[in-house]
Write a structure and sequence with these properties.
It is a single chain. Strand 18 (457-459) and strand 19 (462-464) form a beta hairpin. Strands 1, 5, 6, 7, 8, 9, 13, 14 and 17 form a 9-stranded mixed beta sheet that branches. The chain has a single domain (42-477), classed as Alkaline Phosphatase, subunit A (3-Layer(aba) Sandwich), CATH 3.40.720. 33% of the residues lie in helices and 16% in strands. It has helices at residues 13-34, 36-39, 85-89, 154-163, 173-181, 238-259, 263-286, 293-298, 304-321, 346-370, 437-447, and strands spanning 65-70, 107-110, 117-120, 125-128, 141-148, 191-195, 219-222, 326-330, 377-382, 386-387, 390-392, 400-401, 405-411, 418-420, 422-423, 430-432, 435-436, 457-459, 462-464. The protein is of the alpha/beta class. The protein is built from 11 helices and 19 strands. The N and C termini lie far apart (76 Å).
Length: 479
């Protein structure tokens, strides 16, 4: 005889209607998917048990993956990719133009670049002596010299560069990309940040999923023996762990059915299942013993100065090989300099940062190209803003400058050997073909096959999008 306490309770009227509604919805969806006109369309929702399943975009994509080399702190455009002879001609003199208030408002005299520039490649693009290795790749790069930002302070500018908003709580670029396209890797997250130990101002919320499902939030991979938190197997035998996960999955699915479907719950279930698959995928990813000696040298892994960032660049290549959609790299500390934020002693700080990243980045571009991966991998380099052409007081550094700075892109769909836009003779203000951050985002989405106007998410009674009500695709850098 069964005890009533262990009998499955009868369905309430509300539960019955909820279950029937979803059943009829499933039947309707099956009919729609049988129609090619619906089956081929893109749906940007987390319907189903795998919100990271690969999806097609609005038009043919030129790139499938993105690698963002984020140079936190703001590299100086006039010392990297935007040579200005006038700085040398007026070195040490008061600047002969009206300048806006700077972040610290200690305006010094014009300061020439400590480095020379040479022309490289068939395109003859000038690059600073800071980057002798990256300079050999200019024929694959489009250098944007006319970037502008709306914010001169690090945290707000970091949020803006990543999410198109200056406040916390908004989805980042990587989250929007994975929301729109999912990921071709089912054993690794679709959005990964390679954490060097130095999180930019603004914290990890820079890489947040905001109001999108937590499935699309960045996963952090750290340096060291345990790169990912909370995925280490807790049971001695793999079979026992599999059994526990199987039971958890069964219980989760039963609860999800009773709840009538819930995006947040589905995301939590998907994340738990992904963590289980990562237990096998991550050790294989991090094991570089299968890489050749020549590859290790190409990325600078044989040199203590370049080893840290070189390892990140090599991991970035291995991640896109495995289908990870969006990978972001962060700079690490060397001799006390990790950020490019040199308000004092810019010559030493920029040199240390450049030496640590130059060879690994060039190695990444060349390795991607040799493997045929650069054709559909979009590589982006830059910081949250640039720096002033005059010194900050008498300290040998430069203050923040959001009015005109440089970034570059290479790979999937980019017209190599291109210089786009320009700044004035001092390198202070963008004066030709200004590129707003929203334009940059629109262009990245376009290359991935997404119309930025149509990638939306209903939140708080409004269709939200990465570019808000702004953004134009920069066609001048497209192949």
């Amino acid at each position: 005889m069964l005890c009533r306490h262990f009998m499955k309770p009868a369905l309430s009227r509300r539960e019955m209607l909820a279950r029937c509604a979803h059943g009829f919805g499933g039947l309707a969806l099956t009919a729609l998917l049988a129609d090619p006109s619906f089956a081929g369309s893109t749906t940007y929702s987390s319907w189903g048990k795998n919100p990271m399943r690969p999806r097609s975009g609005h038009h043919k994509a030129r790139a499938k993956n993105v690698i963002f080399l984020f140079m936190s702190g703001g590299p100086s455009q006039v010392d990297t990719f935007d040579p200005k002879p006038q700085l040398a001609a007026e070195n040490g003199q008061p600047i002969k133009m009206k300048v806006p208030p700077t972040q610290f408002n200690t305006i010094g005299n014009v300061m020439k670049s400590p480095w020379g520039f040479k022309n490289y490649g068939e395109s003859g693009v000038p690059v600073s002596d800071l980057f002798p290795h990256i300079a050999t790749c200019v024929d694959d790069m489009a250098i944007i010299r006319s970037m502008v930002s709306n914010f001169p302070e690090h945290s707000a500018a970091n949020y803006f560069m990543h999410s198109g908003r200056s406040q916390q709580g908004w989805p980042s670029l990587g989250a929007w990309v994975t929301y729109g396209l999912g990921s071709e890797s089912q054993d690794l997250p679709g959005f990964i940040v390679l954490d060097s130990g130095m999180i930019p101002p603004g914290g990890r919320d820079i890489f947040h999923s905001g109001f999108l499902s937590a499935t699309y939030q960045a996963s952090f991979f750290r340096q060291g023996d345990h790169p990912v938190a909370n995925i280490k197997r807790t049971e001695e035998r793999e079979e026992l762990q599999k059994g526990k996960f199987s039971l958890m999955r069964q219980l989760d699915e039963e609860f999800l059915e009773r709840a009538g479907g819930d995006d947040k719950l589905e995301a939590a279930i998907a994340n738990y299942e992904l963590a289980f698959r990562m237990q096998g995928a991550v050790p294989n990813l991090m094991d570089l013993r299968g890489e050749s000696k020549a590859t290790m040298e190409l990325y600078g892994l044989n040199d203590k100065t370049t080893e840290t960032f070189g390892r990140q660049c090599l991991l970035a290549r291995r991640l896109v090989e495995r289908g990870v959609r969006f990978v972001e790299l962060l700079t690490s500390s060397h001799e006390g300099f990790g950020s490019w934020d040199q308000h004092t002693n810019l010559e030493k700080g920029h040199l240390i940062n450049a030496v640590a990243t130059d060879k690994p980045i060039a190695g990444l571009l060349k390795d991607l190209k040799s493997r045929g991966l650069l054709d559909d991998t979009l590589v982006l380099w830059g910081g949250e803003f640039g720096r002033t052409p005059m010194a900050q007081g008498t300290f040998g550094g430069r203050d923040h400058n959001p009015y005109g700075f440089s970034m570059w892109m290479a790979g999937g769909g980019i017209k190599g050997g291109t210089i786009y836009g320009s700044t004035d003779d001092y390198g202070y203000f963008a004066v030709e073909n200004k590129v707003e951050v929203h334009d940059l985002h629109a262009t990245i989405l376009h290359l991935l096959g997404i119309d930025h106007n149509r990638l939306t998410y209903r939140f708080s009674g409004r269709d939200m999008r990465l570019t808000d009500v702004h953004g134009e695709v920069v066609h001048g850098i497209l192949a």
